[in-house]
C-alpha cells in the first residue's frame, strides 16, 4: 500500500496513476457499450440482466435479486426490465404471491445473449487481455481483488 503525499491530497505519482486508471476504464466501458450496442443490439444493462438470468435456475429471478447485480436504482431497473419484456427478451410469469415481481429470460433473450456473449468476450480479449502479458494479467487480478476486498467491507 502506498501512503505518499500530503494528507488530503494525492502526490504527483498517485494523481497520475489515478488519472490514467480513470481514463482507461472510462474509455474501455464506453467502447464496450458502443460496440455491444452496434454489434449485438444490446445495452450494457440488457447484457447484465441477460447474463444473470441465463445463469439463474430456470432462467428466472425476482426483481430485487436482479437489482443486486444490475447496479441500477429500483425504479429505473423496473422500467428497464419492463422495456426488455416489451422487446421480447424477458417475460413476467405469474407472481407467486401477487407481490413479488419475477422476470424470466425468453428464447429470444437467450438467443440475443448467445449472440452477444462471444462478441463481449472478443472485446475483453482485444481491448484488455491481449494488451497484457501473463504476469500483468495475474497482477490485474490481484490488484482488482485487493481493491474489491476494501470496497466490499
Describe the structure.
This protein is 67% helix and 6% strand. Strands 1-3-2 form a three-stranded antiparallel sheet. The chain is mainly α. It has a single domain (12-152), classed as Winged helix-like DNA-binding domain superfamily/Winged helix DNA-binding domain (Arc Repressor Mutant, subunit A, Orthogonal Bundle). It has helices at residues 12-40, 44-55, 63-70, 74-86, 107-127, 134-152, and strands at 60-62, 90-91, 102-105. The mean pLDDT is 91. α1 (12-40) packs antiparallel against α5 and α2 crosses α5 (107-127).
What fraction, in percent, of the residue positions are helical?
55-70%
> The biggest beta sheet, please?
3 strands, antiparallel
Q: Kindly provide the name of the CATH class.
A: Mainly Alpha
Strand order of the largest sheet: 1-3-2
Mean pLDDT: 91
Structural Rg = 19 Å
Number of helices: 6
Shape estimate: globular
Which second-level CATH architecture applies? Answer: Orthogonal Bundle
What structural class do helix, strand and pairing data support?
Answer: mainly alpha
The end-to-end distance, rounded to whole angstroms, is 17 Å
Give me the CATH superfamily: Winged helix-like DNA-binding domain superfamily/Winged helix DNA-binding domain
Number of strands: 3
Amino acid at each position: 500500500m502506498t501512503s505518499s503525499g500530503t494528507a488530503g491530497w494525492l502526490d504527483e505519482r498517485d494523481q497520475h496513476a489515478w488519472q490514467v486508471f480513470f481514463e482507461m476504464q472510462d474509455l474501455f466501458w464506453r467502447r464496450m457499450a458502443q460496440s455491444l450496442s452496434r454489434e449485438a443490439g444490446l445495452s450494457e444493462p440488457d447484457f447484465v440482466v441477460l447474463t444473470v438470468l441465463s445463469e439463474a435456475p430456470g432462467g428466472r429471478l425476482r426483481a430485487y435479486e436482479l437489482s443486486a447485480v444490475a447496479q441500477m436504482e429500483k425504479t429505473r431497473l423496473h422500467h428497464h426490465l419492463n422495456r426488455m419484456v416489451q422487446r421480447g427478451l424477458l417475460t413476467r410469469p405469474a407472481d407467486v404471491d401477487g407481490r413479488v415481481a419475477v422476470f424470466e429470460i425468453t428464447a429470444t433473450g437467450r438467443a440475443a445473449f448467445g449472440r452477444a456473449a462471444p462478441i463481449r468476450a472478443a472485446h475483453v480479449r482485444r481491448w484488455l487481455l491481449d494488451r497484457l502479458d501473463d504476469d500483468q494479467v495475474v497482477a490485474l487480478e490481484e490488484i482488482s481483488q485487493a481493491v474489491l476486498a476494501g470496497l466490499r467491507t
